[in-house]
Amino acid sequence: MNVYYDNESRPGEGLAFVVAPTADGPPPGSHGGFLGLTNATLEATPATNRFVAVEFDTFKEPGGYDPDDNHVGLDVGTVASNKTASLAGFNITIATNKTAPANYTAWIEYDGAARRIAVYMGVRGAPRPATPVLASPLDLSELVPERAYLGFTASTGVSFELNCILDWNLTIETFPADKKSKGWVVPVAVAVPVAAIAAAAFVVARMARARRSMERRRQERLEHTLTNLPGMPKEFAFEKLRKATKNFDERLRLGKGGYGMVYKGVLPAAAVDDDDGRPPAATEVAVKMFTRDDAKCVDDFLKEVQIIHRLRHRNIVPLVGMSKIFKLHYITFA
């Protein structure tokens, strides 16, 4: 990114990367220190604003919540940052002019499992620094809607500057969610032509809707086929398989192939039905995890369940059940 101001003026006000509840434009009156995020009215009710932003602030607002005119801040529903960090100690000046021009890269990384955000910043072209300029606990699941928009906002006031997003990259990794947590990890290298921000947000939203629709159709086909299998195999809750494999511990991995991985596990007593009248006992199992995320993976999962479900041989481990969660499918053998 590049923030430029004329030598004759004073820079202001700043820009922000935001996770927002809607794709609506900036609220009226959000110029100046509101950074296009809120206004005087919305500032009175931060809990209802439902956004989280990382601000790159170039103007010290009166009121005492800005440490200086060159800082990074974490904004939760308000521009009065929950946490700020001055960049003076990192030899970084956000707003530059022709006397000392500079382009920067910012990495914004969110760990949904640890519920923590970290912001790194350095000269463009250099590797990501080892030390973040700002780090803070943060639980996005409590603060923004499940369906949200990513983008950028900026503002000017009496002071002005040119806020340029040069390019950007977004990576999201999703994991099977248990009952206690829903997590994502979001590393973001900030920057995009400003004129393309709205279009990018629209495209991302459309792609996400299309993907959800496709995944819903796959899930419906999967459930229909499994329901019509003769003697349908037992369906295990994902939590049971996770505990059986000690959270899919790498030390229990038996093998890896093009479609996924196989883990050794132990299901507790009574988790697997015995047909010979013996008392239920803990059962040693192999759990195959399908990790490919495409339609062919679903087809292969169904074919393997159908074939193995019919096989009976002393040298072939029998199928005892399966599980399906989000994009991952599991087959359990005993």
TrEMBL record:
EC number annotated for this UniProt entry: 2.7.11.1
PROSITE patterns: LECTIN_LEGUME_BETA (PS00307), PROTEIN_KINASE_DOM (PS50011)
Transmembrane segments: 184-208
Protein localization: Cell membrane; Membrane
Membrane-topology annotation of the record: Single-pass type I membrane protein
Entry keyword set: ATP-binding, Cell membrane, Glycoprotein, Kinase, Lectin, Membrane, Nucleotide-binding, Serine/threonine-protein kinase, Signal, Transferase, Transmembrane, Transmembrane helix
Gene Ontology BP term (one): response to other organism
Domain Protein kinase: 248-334
InterPro entries found in the cross-reference section: ConA-like_dom_sf (IPR013320), Kinase-like_dom_sf (IPR011009), L-type_Lectin-RKs (IPR050528), Lectin_legB_Mn/Ca_BS (IPR019825), Legume_lectin_dom (IPR001220), Prot_kinase_dom (IPR000719), Ser-Thr/Tyr_kinase_cat_dom (IPR001245)
GO molecular function, one term: protein serine/threonine kinase activity
Chief location of this protein within or outside the cell: membrane
Signal peptide residues on this chain, from the entry's feature table: none
One cellular component (GO) term of this entry: plasma membrane
Assigned protein family: In the N-terminal section; belongs to the leguminous lectin family.
Protein name (database record): non-specific serine/threonine protein kinase
Native organism: Oryza sativa subsp. japonica (Rice)
Lineage of the organism: Eukaryota, Viridiplantae, Streptophyta, Embryophyta, Tracheophyta
